[in-house]
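Sanity check

After download, print the first record. It should look like this:
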Amino acid sequence: MAATTAGAAEPPGLETQHREIEALLQNHDLRAGDSWYLLERRWFEQWKEYVETGDQNSSSFPGQIDNTELFEELESYRLKERLVENEDFVLIPAEAWHKLLAWYGVVADQPALERKVVDLPSTVKVEVYPVEIFLCLHSDMENVLTAQFSRVDSINVIQKTMRKQFEVPESAETRLWMKSSETSCERLRNVHMTVLDSCLSSGMTVIMELRNADGTWPSSRPQIMRNSVEEQDSYKGQPGVCGLTNLGNTCFMNSALQCLSNTPPLTEYFLRSAYLDELNFTNPLGMKGEIAEAYADVVKQMWSGRHYSVVPRIFKTKVGHFASQFLGYQQHDSQELLSFLLDGLHEDLNREVAEEAWRNHRRRNDSVIVDTFHGLFKSTLVCPECHKVSVTFDPFCYLSVPLPVSKERVMEVFFVSLDPAAKPVQHRLVVPKAGKVSDLCAALSLATDIPANQMVVADVFNHRFYKIYQADEYLSCILDRDDIFVYELSRGSVEEDGDEVVLALYLRERSHYRDYGSGSSSYGTSLFGHPLLISTPRGQCSQESLYQLFLQRLARYVRPLDPSEEVEEEEEADDEEEELYKTQTNGVSDDEGEDEDEKPGPSKREGGEGQGQGQGQGEGSASEVNQSNDSTEPAEAGATNNVGKAGCSREDAPPPRRATARRPTDADVPNAADGTLAAGRQPSDEDEEEEEEEEDGEDGEEEKEQATPHSPQPNERLPKRKCCHAKRRKQLFAIQAVNSNGTTERGMGEGGCAFSFTSQPYVAIDWDPDMKKKYYNENEAEKYVKHQSMEVPHKQTTVQLQQCIELFTTVETLEEENPWYCPTCKKHQLATKKLDLWSLPEVLIIHLKRFSYTKYSREKLDTIGTGLLRLPAEEDGDGRGAPSRYDLIAVSNHYGGLRDGHYTSYARNKDNGQWYYFDDSKVTYAREEQIMTNAAYLLFYQRQDKIRQPTLPTPRDGSSSPSQSANEVTSPPQDGVDGATSCVNMETD
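Expected structure tokens:
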């Protein structure tokens, strides 16, 4: 207070002065926010002595108020440290101070020592020593000012002080940082918090930062992608036409941000900084304003017109911090991100005013998000028993509308005929979406005239049967990308009294050399070509019979031996071969087999489980083995390898699964009691027959001998071959019993073991590389014919958006898992439910439910939406206004399938009315006809009466864009749907 002179007002009598001041001192409580004043104690004691004398001429007259003794020095009038109340000074309420000041005045130039009463956590007291803080600008850290603030002052008081001291214009957007040490700075986000609650203390520095013209903050400038500082600072483009850098699978986030950024009312709200006055830092459902601030930073950078592309790294970090599902860099759904963001912005900006369904909602929820995006559903429930009608109203932020789901499905399969000379034929079939494998066979039967019960459907992958399907399995377990083969079988293998067994035949090529280095002296094999299902009479499973059968079945692409080549050759076996034969069973040595039992199969690295099943043949197997290194030694050409006794397959090694293969179900697990004969088990009478081949010098006639009833134990050696120098007929390949994975395992084919016809028998034919090269025609083996059904173009389904909305509002019956409690019937009922749009928002977001999940199938619907650009909506349900009409302003696109894909967006710039295509950091011009594609996923509409006319002329042509750059706007790629379809070939995330 400025100095005043004594006698400014005629003082009352001394007794009156004493009585009035004493009454104020005794009856005045400390109340937070009140002002009290420091008074030098000796002056106050002298005043008391003076008024108590009752003599106005007393020598104890105190004179003007003088607080000189309380100041450290008289230039700054800085208060001395560690002053003690009632020793160095007394505190008097403001009313008492003003009376004394009026009666006695104060020494010239001395300021009044006004102090506030503060409500601290443990006490209420007068704050004698305020917080002394250093102030400076981020752009000029050397120019530091000192100022004092009460602990109950708000941060806004500091901000206003700094604006005044540093002459910062009110239009400039600022933010404050609290520097507590040389290396530690913290944002002072909530300007309404007090100095005390912000943990500001004396000696700290508050730094004011001004937002750059390009929307960035000086402290986070490196977050901008630019070719050079000079080029970036000189660039001036269309505001809002700015890419977003993909940080690694963040195209879903970029797509949603671009759509939201091109929503005019929300963007203008942030661009004019209206959010600063509405940041809610105390909402327990919010994110302390951090999501709103991070989003504001991205929007201001995108709409500054100074950037080709922005790196939204800080925003991504904030999202992951508050929504852990978005941590890391996995692919996510743009609709899920949008839902989180709208909810987060709403809670961070919730005004929470306290003013029936809509009004109740607004009492608790009041933000720019509610103003812009929220509408109201009318939900009508009708009890099926008493017909009680219940009507409720619920708010919504976006509409998730279903796409009409077709009940049919198009599948492509390869039909393999019984005719060896016929090539496989590719068919395109229309089948029930919720149908079974039998329905697929029935559809194929109409096209081939082959009875459906003579067909077996199999999934072929990596040259083996990934799965052989049963007729009653659902088609939903077959994916569109699966290679499905349908094999024709003979009647004898499908009739109840038929005497034929179905063999699964694999083709293998063995390596040139034995792998002695691995400790096993055996040949490695690898699968090739397409497997086959072949039926044969049960009694004709001898080596020679199967050889002739396979040769006949492969006749289209396997050249038979010429008569001149079918020369009997003498087999020569040295001592090493003889010893190897003694210690091996079907190409697996005893030592090798023991090693294999102790270590995991090589297929562990493929990390998959699968299954193989044969129609009418029981269930397959479920273990893991790799085909490429199976350590088996097929019998040498023409050597005895009696499949009739060696065909017993344990079937515990299915083929490796695809990288994204389905999980095996309980139905895929083999039956433990499948009747398979294990090595060393006493065979039955039917299984005891053992065939031995003897070469007759003249006619080559084969004779059968009865096998001994005793099967050799694992540690017993097989008898020596009868003749180490016997003669044999030259053969193209050797036959080997294998498991469902195409691998020969220890114990397969040991004496007395026969095929198990209660499970699928698997057989491999092993080719010597030289023989395969000479007699196997790979080109012919891969040929197939396209059926005329493949020439019929696949029709793209189209649907009007209005149909989707009508489907959304149709009457439906509640599911059993979610009944409604009828208050009249007093029990839960499966009521009918109907949703109506009661009131509509300014910006209507429609989510097309392209991802369909039912108990029968999982798929992405590729329906093309038509009528997207204009959306006539019915009159608001409450009848308050005319019918609402909406124009499309942005689209989030999804290209790809259920598990992967890429997100982009189309958006209409609010300033020039031009459509743009945003693909992460790249931006191109777009036209309206490009937008109607089967990729449209999220649609943003704005009411026509709220759309502001463009303030800038629409660019005449994208090609007129200035110098082209990777991040600059270029002309549209193509016209119409084709232009959008080209995006499918872009690299996915």
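If your output differs, re-run the checksum step. Summary of this record's structure: The mean pLDDT is 75.
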